[in-house]
């Protein structure tokens, strides 16, 4: 079965694009919204603001399995777009350098706030479909990553909306 390489979903959040971007462009905050992410460790250079080329380690957990990803920021356009690429992963240290996936968040001003679109792209283009599908089903309890990520994206966006609109991450 051919793979779906990209999935996305959108939600409207009752804040302006700059405020939403500010929250999402700090990877340490993702743990508040994502069903898998457990936070991030920022690499050098984050003190001068988010920008292309900055690196961070994402800490993740699915069931009883934990892993770390090495990520690099690929887009940092305040109020418009934040994106990063997962370049390596491993259980405790980054043992497997490889193109894994890309994540993108787009922000568009609309009536009532900001439409946030979250997109996941499977960057494992060199993997044969049968191998990728088998790996995906083994680590997600029966789903291919595109289907699995659809659920994660819906969960992340709904939680992001709920928390940002009530001011939970802005200290209100």
From TrEMBL:
It comes from the Bacteria. It comes from Streptomyces albus (strain ATCC 21838 / DSM 41398 / FERM P-419 / JCM 4703 / NBRC 107858). InterPro entries: Polyketide_cyclase/dehydratase, START-like_dom_sf. It holds the Pfam family Polyketide_cyc2. This is Polyketide cyclase.
